[in-house]
């Protein structure tokens, strides 16, 4: 299981499911080391309404998309996803310092229904099986996921943001 969770997330990840087929799809809920499951969500990239009325995050500027979380209770923060440093293409290509240090404009997400700013967070990754990443010779196969989905749920009114991030990385 841990073979398929990126380093920065593994301590926060509580497995929900693992489906092994042509690809490996792992899904988990996030909780802080202090066991709190509510996070303030900051993101970059633009939010827009998808065709099904769902809110989704899309890359518009040069910094792609990403999300960082901070624990409601103890303030611990983590970068859940950064399209410039995470995912298959980046791991294969290698990250250049010029793109890594670009300033990002972070926005704090608030629930459109109740204006609360705390969310439960679920993340899902799709990886190639280890036999294939070994062939490619990837040093950081955990971070070489090909797809990431992040779903949120308002901890006050329970409004769901299914696949708020739905991002193919390779
Ligand atoms: Zn905490
Ligand atoms: Zn709400």
Describe the protein's architecture and organization.
The longest helix has 7 residues, at 130-136. With 170 residues, the protein is mainly β. The chain has one domain (2-168). It has helices at residues 7-10, 88-93, 97-100, 130-136, and strands at residues 13-20, 24-30, 39-44, 46-49, 55-58, 66-71, 77-82, 107-108, 119-127, 147-154, 160-168. Helix content is 12%, strand content 41%. Strand 1 (13-20) and strand 2 form a beta hairpin. It has a five-stranded antiparallel beta sheet, with no helix packed on it. The chain has a four-stranded antiparallel beta sheet with strand order 7-6-3-8, with no helix packed on it. It is globular. The structure holds zinc ion (ZN) (2 copies).
**Helical fraction:** 10-25%
Number of helices: 4
Q: Which stretches of 5+ consecutive residues score pLDDT under 50? A: none
Query: Which hetero compounds are present in the coordinates?
Result: zinc ion
Largest sheet: 5 strands, antiparallel
Beta-strand percentage range: 35-45%
């Amino acid at each position: 299981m841990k073979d398929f969770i990126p380093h920065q997330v593994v301590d926060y990840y509580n497995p929900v499911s693992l489906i092994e087929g042509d690809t490996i799809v792992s899904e988990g809920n996030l909780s802080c080391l202090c066991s709190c499951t509510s996070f303030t969500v900051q993101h970059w990239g633009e939010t827009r309404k998808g065709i099904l009325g769902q809110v989704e995050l899309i890359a518009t500027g040069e910094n792609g998309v990403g999300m960082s979380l901070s624990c409601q209770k103890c303030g611990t923060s983590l970068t859940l996803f950064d399209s410039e440093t995470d995912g298959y293409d980046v791991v294969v290509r290698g990250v250049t310092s010029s793109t890594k240090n670009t300033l990002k404009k972070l926005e704090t997400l608030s629930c459109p229904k109740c204006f609360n700013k705390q969310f439960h967070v679920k993340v899902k990754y799709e990886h190639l099986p280890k036999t294939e990443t070994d062939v490619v010779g990837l040093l950081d196969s955990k971070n070489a996921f090909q797809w990431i989905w992040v779903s949120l749920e308002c901890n006050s009114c329970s409004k769901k943001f299914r696949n708020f991030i739905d991002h193919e990385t390779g």
